[in-house]
Structure formats: C-alpha cells, structure tokens
Recover the amino acids of this structure.
C-alpha cells in the first residue's frame, strides 16, 4: 500500500492524558447537587415465586425518596434481546440468586440500607436446576417461561439448538484410520472489569424526560429499553457514556436494568439518582461468560489428513437468555476449528438453569470451544505421531478453501503464515524437542517439568448472521476550525476513538490533533448497533473513512475554486492544498472559502457489512463475511509436587491486516492473552446450588503482573480489502487460543489432559477438584451485610 | 473527629468519623476522585496512594491513621505546568493505558518503586505492581513504561 502518515505510526490514545492524570471522570466520580444514592434489593434464592412485595414501610423510612418494583414499569419492564425474558425488576419469579426485586433511592447510605431492610418480600422457594444436562431431562423444573420465539423447541429449558452440517459425519468417522473422542468442560468466567457497574439519572426540569449516564457498551440500546419500559418519548431520553473502566462484553444487559431503575427512581424522586455496585454486588448480579461442555470426535488418516468431526456443545445460559442465543451460535460455527474437513457435524444446545445468567464476554462463545477443539487436535496429532504445528499446517484453512460451513474463503486467509510465524518467533522446533529430550519419560513426584503448547484459531468478523451490521460516523468543521468526529460505536478502553481519529486524519491529510471526538451520546452521535463482536475497527473504521472521503472532496473542491484550478489538479503537501502552479492554500483558508461559498461542512458516512446468508435449518452457508486467523504458543513450568503452573513464555502471531494503532493493537493482544491465561489457570466462578462462592477478588482470582510473562507479538499484515486501510480487528481474537495453548503446554509437561477448567492445583495434580461444600452465606453477605 | 495531614504537599484538615477509610475521605470529603475504588478489601490496588512515600491501599487505611503524615494521590503527581510527569508520559507513549481505571494506582506504584530502587529489573517491576490489578493490558506495556522511565531518570542524574 502507499506510504501513510498517521495510520500504522506510533500514536497517543486520545484519552490517555486525562487517565494518567487521574482527571478522567468515571460514573462514580460524578457528584451532583441533591443527588440521591440507590441500590437494588436482590434475591437470596436462586429460584422462587414472588408471592408479595410490600414497600409501604420502606417508603416511610426517613431519607427514602422512592421505592420501585416491576409494577412501576410498562409491561412490568419486560425487555431483552433477542429473547424478551428479563424485567427491569423481577416479575412473579426470581430466576437466579442476585436477581433484582425492588430498588430504593435515598438521601444517604444509612437511609438507603434502612429502606432496603424495610421492604417486605415473601418468596416461595421453587426447586432449582443447576446443571444444563439435568435441565434438559423430562422431569426438570422449568426455569421461567418458555422462550417466546421458539415455541416448537422440545423442552421448556432448551433455549436454542444450532447445527452445522457438511457431508455425512457418521460414515466419514467410521471410515477414518485413526479416531479420537474427548470431553472438555469450561467454567463461567467473570469479566472482572476494574470499574464496577454504575448509572446516574438526572430528571428533566419538566419531569417528563431523563438523562442517564451509564457505563454501558451500547447507549442506543439502553435508550431504547428506557423509552419502552418507562413509556417516555424517545426524544426525552438521552443516554451519555462517561469514561468506562473496562467492559469485555459485560456491560450490556445488567446496565440496561440498572439504567431503567435509576431513570424511574429519578423521575419519581424529582432528583438525580446514582447507583454504583460494590464488587460483591457486581460479582453476584452480573452475567458471565457461559460455561460449556463439549464432546468432540475427530477422525484422520495415517498420512496426517484430518477428515471428519462430530461435535456436541452444551451451553449453560443460566437464569436468562441475554445474548446466549448469539454466543451459542458463534460457538457452533467455530467448534470444529479453522480446518478443512470432508465431513463435519456440530450440534449445540443452550439450556436455562438457575445459575447466574450468561451473556457476552470477550470472544463470544469462541474461547470456550477453542479450549475443546485445540486440545482435541493436539491429542489427534499425538496419536498420528505428528508435530502439533505440522499437523495444523497440514489441515488448516487456506485461501480459496471451503470451510465446513460451505463458505469459500477469499485471499485474506493467513493462518498458515501465522502458524509459521509463531513457530519461528517461539523457536518451536528447537525448544520443543529440547524439552522432550531433557525430560524423557514420566515425571518423578516433585519434579519441575516444562512444556510447550500451541493453539490456532479463527474468528468470524463482526456480527455475522447475528444481526444487521452497519455503522455511522459524522464529521463537522467547527467554528474554531477544529473537526468534530462522532461514531455510534463506543470506546470502553479498547481504543476505538483513537483508531477512528487516525483513520480520519489519514484520509483528510490533516493532523490527528485537529480532531475532537466527544464521548458517545445518543443526542450527538448516530445509532450504529452495539459495540461488540470486535466490530469497531472495521465497521466504525470504514464509516469514518467514508465520511472523511466525503469531507475531503468538499474541501478539495473548495481549494480548487480558491486556487482557480480543477479538483483533480489540487495536490497535497503536509496540511496544505497546492495548485498546479505551486500556489498553496492552508486548511483554514480552504475552510473559510468553503464557508463563503455556502458549502456544508458537516457530513455523515454509513458503512454496511457485505451481505451474508446462513441457513439455520441446513446448518450451512456463509456465517461471516470474513475471518481473523491467529496462532499462539505458550511455555509452562509445572511443579509436579504441588500442581502449580507458571507460564514462562508466550508468543503470538495474528492476521490483523494493516495495523492502524500499533501500541493499541499490542495492548489488545497482550490483554487478551492475559485474560486467556486467567481463564486457563485460575478463574473460577463456582455456583453451588446457584449461589456464587466467589464474591470478591480474594476468591475470584485474576492474573497479576507476576502471573503473566513477557510476551512476544507478531502481526501478519496481509491487507484485507474490505477493511479500512486493509485492517482487521483484534479485540476478541487475541484471547481465543491463549487458554488451549497453555493447556497443551501443560500436557507436554505432565502427560495429563486438562478436561475441566481451570487448570488449578487440583486439576493439574489429580485431574479432579477438591472442593469444600459451598454455602449461600457468601452471597447473602455480599448483598446485604447480614 | 478532626484529622490533620499533609496532602500532595499542602496541609489539610478534615472532619470525619473515626471509622472512615482514607479512600472515602479523599473521594467524598476532599473531592479527589483520581483515587478509585475497585474492591474495597485491599485486593485490587485501584485505591493506591503513597503514605509517607510507601504504597498503601487507601481502602484499608482508616482516616485517623494518616494524622500528621504525608499522603500523595495521583492529583499530586504532575510534571511542568501541571501536565504529565515523565512516568505518566511514558505510560502514554508505551500504550500502558487502556480503560484507565487502574492507571492512577499503577503510576503511584511505579513512583514508589523508583523512589526506592532507581534501577529495577523487569521482575522487580512486576513484583512492585503485583498488588495492582489490571484487566486490560496484560501488564507488559506498564512494565515497559516504568522501565523506560527508570532508564531516563538515571541518564538525567548522570548528566546533572
């Protein structure tokens, strides 16, 4: 590609300065005169009928200004996408321990707690179901209502069933010379954003509208839910996103509930109302990455050709659907890994249980299945006596190949390059054989063993067949000649505002410092769908490139008029517009001329993803318009006396297309790997009969700086034609293969497969968990201090 | 009760119940919201401040404990003309900032380390920030930023 000035060059994150100075305002930093504090009363039972809620005593508590239940919302506050099974506050039933039942707004913490204590709630316990397999048995208690959009599903707890079909997997497996059957399970994962959930609602002076500040990912969806459940006019509800302290997919549904609650409380109280969560409330109430069980059968021939796969995936959706219908679909599409198969069959079931609910989490169903398939591929390679990277190279998807879904891939596929690259930067061949040679046979108790493992991945870009895929950006030259750029896609720490700014600057040939990018606000930006699924760079980036091209043609037209030449004759030198006789006009002169001529310097650009088609009945089609590919290698050291695993080295190669913001891409890569390391080794959400046992960071462990090694990242910058300047995304893919790479390394060290995450001391040493009986006290303690 | 201490170089006096945490005094009484609450039990380090030059979790320090002592928060870490100092600028340049919620605590952890050890190894840097959780960055660029600042400060001392 041609030489760039800003794209791909070192840059500063647009909001980095305020963050290092400590002046960035997060939701809990907002203080308004007359502001009330609020909290929800949450269920201490995982499944129960709500017999009665009496708020009369609570309303009389001095300092309490408003108390609400589901009765205060239109249709009891029913909302949810794609399944409308949630309420702003629980209606008739609670479906998990932590479900919000009522909410109070009060003057201060003391009166708030007194108000919550004075609410009288009568719950009649219902039998619960805490295992997705048990949930699908004929006699299982039914969790909530039947899914509204799937009345024909055979079981009331079955949320979705998805399939992928290519050829006849049964016959193909039977004909294979070598087959393998393995079972793998993952646990729920907490997003563990350092900033907990929070929302602040400010009623309008006429009492008919509300402005909500919420650290959610998708302000437009939030506004839609508030409008619908409070019965307000769309133009009277404004949602503004303050600086967000991390999200990773976790700041959607729960934040919509919280936002609806504070909006209603603020309208009733006539005062601003803020609700922020303690870490305990966050862990108890928030949705998690789904827990998945997989049965994987693979078949190959002795020559190393992978031929067939038959896979079943069972997903625990918990008490509500949230976004599980989409994550489970993504799991089914990615469950067989980035390989060619003659025949492939995937069946995925998602079931309701009374565990806390599952929702979007970085990787969106793909890290889960990657743990299964990438371990199975390693097991099969071992049976064939092949090197794990050789086996993957032999069978991985390449340009022009057809995927098991029936999609013919374009020339942007770079998995083989990623595998070769990671093999090279990790010195795989030498390092792996040196370990094997040094260690020889089985380990002696207490021996420190080393291991090297690899995993490959693919990840469908953007939403795919999950929904309409578009983004809108706007550009306007302000009176002071700064340029305001907006996008409906948000930046919760991922760096998208910086990426958009660099794209606009590059396209217009103007310095990034000229651009101002306000925080997402439903009043000043245009709806662009949710900021999920690693879609910001491509969707928002393309919309930004388009809008910048529009503004550029207006400015070049103005320059041509000013310089008395044709637009085609206008050349650019730094920020100047230069005519055919070397006469130059500055940006300011060109803008001033455009204004005199009455030209509109405010434009809008919309980009839609290419059309795709997926047949849910047949289980084939084009699930995504393109894919990201990558491969990672982990080195571990295992103490076979204690089961302790240290990750001592990590190498990653990813097919990012053109890199736009180098420090940002590396940050996303390293951060994703660290999250995958936690997923592999320590992160454990333990629901005991529906009660979460890990309610703060002393019990829910995430990696510290000492748990993460120095990592090496490399990018295969094969330009991706549909991406802005040839870019693909990185946010989610970075995490996907990290856990299985570590698990495969543990296998080389110990000779033991990790079939249940996390690979904690017990799993590594004994292959099963030693656990004390849990209880429900931690959960209650965390919520109400009793 | 009345508590007098030195905050970011200036004397302050606050009136707060004896059971109030330093974190709440800073945020609620003094309006210094750069110090963040992440867990409330001293596990995450988002509330880190310097107490007599040592890194502490302000959620675990009771306000009366700081009487007569010196507290430095992120608002007290500034370069020329109130902008970023060299360590803060290194955080920006190295890409060590993502969501930013752990950043104030991380900067203070870095300052505490560099004050006691001008030539830390990468492992020593990792140990010094091990009480500060970050979920976004994987820590690498934070280690880079502290390491680069240590190098520059040593070079500067060498020149002076």
């Amino acid at each position: 590609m041609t030489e760039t000035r800003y794209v791909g060059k070192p840059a500063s994150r647009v909001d980095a300065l305020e963050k290092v100075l400590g002046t960035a305002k997060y939701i809990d930093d907002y203080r308004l005169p007359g502001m009330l504090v609020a909290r929800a009363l949450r269920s201490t039972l995982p499944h129960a009928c709500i017999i009665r809620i009496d708020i009369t005593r609570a309303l009389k508590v001095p300092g309490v200004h408003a108390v609400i239940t589901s009765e205060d919302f239109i249709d009891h506050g029913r909302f949810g996408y794609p399944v409308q099974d949630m309420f702003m506050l629980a209606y008739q039933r609670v479906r998990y321990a932590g479900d919000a039942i009522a909410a109070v707004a009060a003057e201060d913490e003391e009166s708030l707690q007194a108000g919550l204590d004075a609410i009288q709630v009568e719950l009649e316990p219902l039998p619960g179901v805490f295992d997705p397999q048990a949930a699908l048995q004929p006699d299982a208690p039914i969790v909530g209502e039947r899914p509204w959009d799937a009345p024909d599903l055979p079981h009331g707890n079955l949320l979705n069933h998805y399939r992928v079909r290519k050829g006849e997997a049964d016959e193909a497996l039977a004909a294979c010379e070598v087959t393998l059957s393995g079972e793998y399970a993952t646990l729920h994962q907490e997003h563990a954003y350092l900033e907990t959930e929070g929302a602040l609602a400010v009623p309008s002076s006429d009492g008919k509208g509300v402005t909500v500040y919420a650290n959610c990912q998708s302000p437009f969806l939030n506004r839609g839910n508030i409008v619908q459940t409070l019965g307000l006019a769309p133009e009277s509800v404004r949602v503004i996103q303050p600086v967000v302290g991390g999200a990773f997919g976790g700041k959607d549904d729960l934040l919509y509930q919280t936002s609806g609650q504070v909006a209603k409380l603020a309208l009733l109280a006539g005062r601003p109302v803020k609700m922020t969560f303690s870490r305990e409330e966050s862990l108890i109430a928030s949705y998690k990455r789904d827990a998945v069980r997989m049965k994987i059968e693979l078949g190959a021939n002795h020559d190393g050709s992978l031929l067939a796969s038959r896979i079943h995936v069972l997903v625990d959706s918990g008490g509500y659907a949230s976004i599980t219908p989409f994550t489970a679909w993504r799991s089914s599409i990615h469950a067989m890994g980035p390989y060619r198969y003659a025949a492939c069959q995937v069946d995925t079931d998602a079931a309701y249980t009374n565990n806390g609910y599952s929702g979007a989490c970085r990787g969106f169903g793909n890290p889960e299945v990657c743990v299964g398939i990438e371990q199975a591929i390693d097991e099969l390679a071992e049976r064939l006596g092949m090197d794990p990277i050789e086996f993957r190279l032999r069978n991985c998807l390449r340009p022009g190949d057809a995927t098991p879904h029936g999609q013919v891939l374009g020339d942007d596929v770079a998995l083989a390059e990623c595998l070769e690259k990671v093999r090279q930067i990790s010195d795989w061949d030498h390092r792996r054989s040196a370990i094997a040679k040094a260690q020889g046979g089985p380990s002696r108790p207490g021996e420190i063993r080393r291991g090297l493992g690899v995993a490959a991945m693919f990840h469908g870009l953007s939403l795919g067949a999950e929904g309409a895929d578009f983004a809108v950006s706007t550009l306007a030259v302000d009176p002071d000649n700064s340029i305001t750029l907006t996008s409906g896609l948000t930046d919760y720490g991922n760096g998208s505002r910086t990426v958009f700014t660099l794209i606009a600057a590059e396209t217009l040939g103007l310095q990034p410092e000229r651009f101002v990018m306000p925080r997402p606000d439903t009043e000043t930006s245009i709806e662009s769908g949710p900021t999920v699924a690693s879609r910001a760079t491509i969707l928002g980036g393309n919309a930004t490139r388009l809008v910048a091209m529009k503004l550029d043609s207006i400015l070049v037209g103005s320059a041509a008029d000013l310089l008395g030449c044709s637009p085609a004759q206008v050349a650019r030198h730094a920020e100047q517009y230069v005519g055919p006789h070397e006469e130059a006009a500055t940006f300011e002169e060109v803008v001033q001329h455009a204004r005199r001529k009455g030209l509109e310097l405010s434009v809008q650009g919309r980009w839609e993803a290419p059309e795709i088609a997926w047949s849910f009945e047949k289980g084939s089609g084009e699930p995504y318009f393109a894919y990201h590919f990558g491969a990672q290698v982990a080195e571990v050291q295992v103490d076979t006396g204690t089961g302790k695993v240290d990750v001592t080295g990590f190498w990653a190669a990813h097919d990012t297309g053109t890199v736009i913001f180098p420090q940002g891409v590396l940050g996303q890569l390293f951060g994703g790997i660290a999250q995958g390391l936690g997923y592999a080794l320590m992160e454990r959400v333990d629901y005991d009969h529906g009660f979460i046992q890990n309610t703060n960071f002393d019990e829910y462990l995430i990696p510290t700086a000492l748990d993460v090694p120095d990592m090496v990242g490399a990018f295969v910058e094969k330009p991706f034609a549909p991406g802005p300047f040839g870019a693909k995304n990185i946010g989610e893919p970075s995490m996907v293969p990290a856990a299985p790479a570590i698990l495969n390394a543990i296998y080389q060290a110990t000779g033991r497969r990790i079939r249940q995450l996390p690979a904690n001391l017990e799993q590594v040493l004994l292959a099963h968990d030693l656990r004390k009986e849990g209880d429900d006290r931690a959960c209650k303690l965390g919520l109400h201090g009793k | 009760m009345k508590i007098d201490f030195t905050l970011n170089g200036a004397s302050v006096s606050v009136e707060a119940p004896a059971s109030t945490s330093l974190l709440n005094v800073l945020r609620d009484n003094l309006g210094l919201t750069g110090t963040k609450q992440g867990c409330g039990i001293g596990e995450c380090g988002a509330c880190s401040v310097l107490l007599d030059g040592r890194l502490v979790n302000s959620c675990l320090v009771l306000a009366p404990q700081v009487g007569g002592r010196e507290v430095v928060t992120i608002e007290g870490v500034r370069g020329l003309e109130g902008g970023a100092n060299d360590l803060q600028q290194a955080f920006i340049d190295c890409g060590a900032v993502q969501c930013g919620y752990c950043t104030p605590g991380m900067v203070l952890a870095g300052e505490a380390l560099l004050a006691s050890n001008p030539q830390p190894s990468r492992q020593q840097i990792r140990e010094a920030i091990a009480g500060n959780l970050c979920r976004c960055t994987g820590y690498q660029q934070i280690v880079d930023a502290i390491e680069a600042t240590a190098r520059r400060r040593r070079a500067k001392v060498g020149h002076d």
Summary: Chain A has 20 helices and 32 strands. The mean pLDDT of chain A is 93. The domain at 16-22+470-608 of chain A is CATH 3.30.365.10 (Aldehyde Oxidoreductase; domain 4).
